[in-house]
Design goal:
about 25% strand
Length: about 100
């Protein structure tokens, strides 16, 4: 499977990294990046391992940690990362 990132998901990722760099230490930033990369790699192998969201049945949610989730869709052989979301705020578009 091919993994592609939407512009909003890329922006979510970049904004989160920037926030962590400004407010936390390098260890926290590295863990966030490593955890996201690990789950994206797992999505490429097991795209249907995670449940669909309640609001949109073509969108799935991968909980990365207690604070972050990846929202994505699977179309053919493409996995499209739609958003990286802070679980404490939710992502009302999908949940």
């Amino acid at each position: 499977m091919v993994v592609e990132w939407s512009d909003p998901a890329t922006k979510d990722f970049d904004n989160t990294v920037r926030y962590l760099e400004e407010n936390w230490n390098d260890k926290v930033v590295s863990k966030f990046v490593r955890d996201i990369r690990k789950e994206v790699s797992r999505l490429a192998v097991f795209p249907f391992a995670f449940p669909v969201t309640l609001r949109k049945k073509d969108v799935r949610r991968c909980v990365v940690s207690k604070t972050n989730s990846i929202y994505y869709s699977v179309k053919g052989n493409i996995i499209l990362i739609l958003a990286i979301s802070d679980n404490r705020r939710g992502h009302s578009q999908y949940t």
